[in-house]
Amino acid sequence: MELWIFGISFFGMLMMNVPISIGMCLSSLLYLAISGELFMLTITAPRIFAGMNNFTMLAIPLFILSGDLLCSGKASKLLVDLANSLVGHLKAGLSTVTTLGCMFFGAVSGSGAATASAIGAVIAPESERSGYDKDFIAAIIASAGPIGILIPPSIPMVVYGAATDTSIGALLLSGIGPGILFGVLIILYGYWYSGKKGYGSRTRFAWGNVFSSAKKAAWALLTPIIIVGGIYSGIFTPTEAAAVAAVYSLIVGLFIYRTLKLKDLPEIFLKSSITSATIMFVVGGVVLFGWVLVREQIPQTLTRVILDNISSPLMFLVVTNLIILVAGMLMDPSPAIILFAPLLLPAVHAFEISPIFFGALMVTNLAIGLVTPPVALTLYVAAEICKVSLSRLIKKVMPIVVLLIIGLFLVTFIPDIAMFIPRLLMGVR
């Protein structure tokens, strides 16, 4: 009876648009109250705090701060200029520049929404001057922005690693292959659509522009290199890498690009703190929620049901894709990971699937969710920045979503897309 009330109250609050963190806490407290385990209420707060008091989790606010510091500077403009110097001369110049710019900036920010916002702010005015369809460019921004959570430093990868006790360094590397695949698919679509509409380019390729743009953008592009290189070489842990990235971003913004002012820092710190607190509150809610699930043996029961009905690891991955894809349409990546990863991990181990590969697959699913209604965070960002109708933008972005789903199943059926780089650099299975 208690379990039924627990489940109904949780999903009921989700349907009423109650934040998932609050829904998990309230439904868990209700379960404890009606189950007669009132003594557990006295240790609820310490249990929640213990879940957040994790050295690995410290990487999340530091990566967020690093991204916010660079986003507040001129990094996005410099990265777009670099992309433009490389591919701006092509037939689908602007759409390719947009996609490549999102990939570059994603390697700096680690956030899909921040990537779409920063690159969109630079690209949107240029689309009007170049005669491109605003709906089309907005669709490219919305679909390329989520690459930011695949390419390191990826905050959802850190969340998954902390939630499942999986190597964060290997997870960060596992997102590079799917991120590049998504970028290539979006570029190919942009090339086809530009050819269909007769869009051309007004720029010429020149090595001088490439070298000049690369020199200016090099300081920003060093961020992911420092993070991944430092972790891979063993110089520092992922959490230490996040701290180094934050300090590096501060120095670059204040003293190299000089776009940051000391007076700007309190606002940036406050913004990063609010974002971090939101994620940590979810983590705290999941600790209590997870205790209830473990007490009722939900993960074990779910694993038995899966093993009794699904005999193939590949079929398990296909079914999981469908579940996580739908979940990504309804909630943000971090809460979805914290909720589903611990539930599915026993089955992952039972099928002898690499938890690193499963993490990459889960984040790939959730990246698609960022551009798929009803949540579709990057879709809303792109619509606002480009000043286009949301209904028109949804129609424009659907063909790209179909391509991304095809890319998702390519990653599912060809694990080396995600695992080649972690295997090459870190020797993981």
Average residue-wise pLDDT: 81
- Computed over alpha carbons, the radius of gyration is 22 Å
How many β-strand stretches?
Answer: 0
Label the overall shape: globular
Oligomeric status of the shown chains? single chain
Number of domains: 2
Distance between the termini: 43 Å
Largest sheet: none
Q: Which segments are poorly predicted (pLDDT under 50) over 5 or more consecutive residues?
A: none
The structural class is mainly alpha
Order of helices and strands: HHHHHHHHHHHHHHHHHHHHHH
In percent terms, what proportion of residues is strand?
A: under 5%
Number of helices: 22
Helicity, as a percent range? over 70%
Task: Characterise this structure.
By secondary structure, this protein is an all-alpha fold. It folds into 2 domains: 1-42, no CATH class; 43-426, no CATH class. The protein contains 22 helices and no strands. Helix 12 packs across helix 21, helix 15 runs parallel beside helix 18 and helix 17 (313-330) packs antiparallel against helix 21. The longest helix is centred in the middle third of the chain and has 31 residues, at 265-295.
Q: Which features does this protein show?
A:
single chain, 429 residues, mainly alpha, 2 domains, 22 helices
Gist of the model:
The protein has helices at 2-15, 20-34, 38-41, 44-52, 59-71, 75-87, 93-109, 112-129, 134-144, 155-164, 168-174, 176-197, 207-233, 238-256, 265-295, 298-309, 313-330, 333-350, 355-369, 377-386, 390-413, 416-426. The protein has 429 residues and is mainly α.
